[in-house]
Amino acid sequence: MNPAVVGTRPGVSRPGLLFAALGLAGLAQPFVQFRANRIVAGEGLSLPDALGPWGWAVAAALTGALAMAIPVRRPAPAGLVLALAGLLGVILFAGAAAGALVPEGDRIARVSLGAGFWLLLAAFALALADALSRLALRPAWRWALLAGAVVAGALILGTGLMDDLSVMREYAARRDTFWREAQRHLMLAFGSLGAALAVGLPLGILVHEAPRLRGAVLGVLNVVQTIPSLALFGIMIPLFGWIAASVPGAAAAGIAGIGAFPALVALFLYSLLPVVSNLLAGLAGVPPGVREAAAGLGMTRAQTLAQVMIPLTLPVLLAAVRIVLVQNIGLAVIAGLIGGGGFGSFVFQGLNQTAMDLVLLGALPTIALALVSGIALDLALEGIDPRKVRA
Amino acid sequence: MTGRLALGLAAILLLAFLLSPESFAPLLRPLTRNGAPPVYTQTSLLSLTFSHLGMVAGAVLAASVLAVGFGVLVTRPFGRDFLPLARTVASVGQTFPPVAVLALAVPVMGFGTGPTLLALFLYGLLPIFENTLAGLTNLPPQVIEAARGMGMTPAQRLWRVELPLALPVILSGVRLSAVIALSTATIGSTVAARTLGEVIIAGLLSSNTAFVVQGGIVVGILALLIHAGFRWIEGRAAGWTRARS
Fold it and tell me: Where is the ABC transmembrane type-1 domain (chain B) (predicted)?
């Protein structure tokens, strides 16, 4: 009995129907929102409203692409190409619509992305995910696709095709701040990861060698991991403020209750549990025979650990790095709330001023960063440990 | 054992603080400066706690029903077509930062409780869905064959065999969702939802360390209690499963 055939009407793919329905709903919704200035209420415009006769052609082309997702016998590579083309098209047409709507030289009019844009984007993104999971491409191809997506994104943004969209207007108004906060965000995410590895690896080895410590160390790290982020970030501020003020030399060593330092420490604390518990699981998973063989070769305990055991735990450690990095890129947003900088400062500024485009300027790069690092590390993980490949 | 004892003491402390925050004022006063109030009184802490927990419970309950429903659907012959897509969406979707989901819910729903509930619900779906899939697709094939051999209908197999066996894994997904929801709801106060985050934010804005500490400790203890409670239920569920099979 083939489960893919049971109950399926011949020639129709149910996921394809879902993508088509989602996309058609998107075409019926306003594609962009136009405002003559930042204050007046927005006016929803469909693709034909925004692009004139060309809009009809674009809408027809998108409808055609969505309809082509329905037949089930379509070869999967064609589905992949279709989804990629649709995704690229939706993004480029949003930029073109903004360019057509904003009069030349006008710095006040605002064009933001509408519900229709997001629904179409979701429809093609789901179609892409479906095609990719069905194709089960070799890792080299998937690396190429990921790199291609990053380069394409950089090209589209760099060539100014999207510059008339209001998110990009917000970017243009604070270009220098944006890159400074981007650097800060990366520093928070990667710095805390580095610190967690530097402390977590020795700590994990110590607990492995002295199993009596296991319960206490993992218990404390589990408690830290459970504490809500705002509470932990908040408590770091007075704590380090107090340390900086009352411990001689602490302030000179860079410890401070304001700025990025409390956020960095909070992220570091959240990162310790995945590193330590994965290292322990990895070390426990080394077959006893391997250890005995190393001892038989005359290796000391330390040599066995450094030259045999640690290399064998590499896949598990890389999995920990994936968990920590994706988690920290997201959590670093909270730093914006406590004056620690990063993309979060745009998110919370935007929420305070009810300026949604500013919120997007902070949220979209964060999501992109988390997605790219998550996918890249998943691919790396498959590369070094083929057993992890998804069925 | 010491862990359980500490947790019990923390629960008693939390209850005492929520019922009578004023009696803790002498403890908190050293954390304030220039005669600032040591205890948050703009809104009653008890009502903030109820509103916070209510939001988390509502969102996680709704997410559990829908996520388990979807999980069952895509593992039946009818929805099998969606299984590869569902797996990808569940794993890629979880790389979306919860705070970003919260921020993006605001343009859709405006400020207040609505966007927070929506974000908690949406983000809560994925861990439960992923665990439901894992639970329902990793069942021992002999058990399913045995159930089939006993003449059970597909519905009976689902209710009496598959779901009970997958329950511990599903519950650990619900625990993950609840802990994340509790944390995200705290940040929800930045979009004007009534949660305990209000206390922490008020403390940060007025540099009143006492507010930050009391808000942080209340949310922290709540998170630990919820985590431990779910662990206990998971243990019991695993016990039933073993006893029945």
Answer: 49-230
